[in-house]
Amino acid sequence: MERTFFMIKPDGVRRGLVGDILKRIEQRGLRIEALEMRQADQAILQAHYEHLVDKPFFPAVLDYMSDGPLIIGILSGPEAVSVWRSMMGATNPKDALPGTIRGDFALPPQPNQPMQNVVHGSDAVSSAQRECQLWFGQSR
Questions:
Q1: What is the 3-state composition of the chain as percent helix, strand, coil, each rounded to the nearest 5?
Q2: Strand ranges across the sheet with 2-8
Q3: CB atoms within 10 A of CB 135
Q4: Is 120 a catalytic residue?
């Protein structure tokens, strides 16, 4: 059984997509082990996106991700990381296929705005472990 971290970003929460996304997760057979609504602070976002801190667009990412509550969770199931990533679709909404979460729900990128692509998922088992630990602590 594999575990992965997932997040419904503030744009997904604000647009009322939480129920639809959770339904897709359950219908796909992934188990929701943890689920929490949270307002992210700068410290946890900087740790989560540490690979982007030096990028010129990073301040816009911080603003976007702290703009409202988000949903965080842990999913488990066979090959949970790759299953969830395939369900999400391509990172850039314009490249996401219909039937994926981003393909169905994400809005096209806007000039001078951070990409609002509704959801996040760990890209590997190792990053899933790091993200679960970061957001949920030792208890998970």
A1: 45, 20, 35
A2: 31-38, 70-77, 2-8, 119-121
A3: 20
A4: yes
Instruction: Give the distance, in angstroms, between the CA of residue 116 and the centroid of all CA atoms in the same chain.
Output: 11
The per-residue pLDDT for range 55-69, each reduced to its tens digit, is: 988 998 899 999 999
Task: Give the pair of three-digit tokens for residue 74.
Answer: 């842990």
**Interaxial angle between packed helices 18-27 and 80-88, expressed in degrees from 0 to 180 and rounded to the nearest 10:** 130
Q: Which of 70, 120, 132, 135 is catalytic?
A: 120
CA distance 59 to 38: 20
- The encoded tokens of residue 100 equal 């994926």
The confidence band for 140, taking pLDDT boundaries of 50, 70 and 90, is low
**pTM (whole model) above 0.85:** yes
Give the C-alpha distances (Å, rounded to integers) separating 40 from 7, 47, 105.
Answer: 11, 11, 22
Report CA torsion sign: 79, 104, 25, 13: positive
22 closest CA partner among 39, 37, 38: 37
DSSP state of 122: -
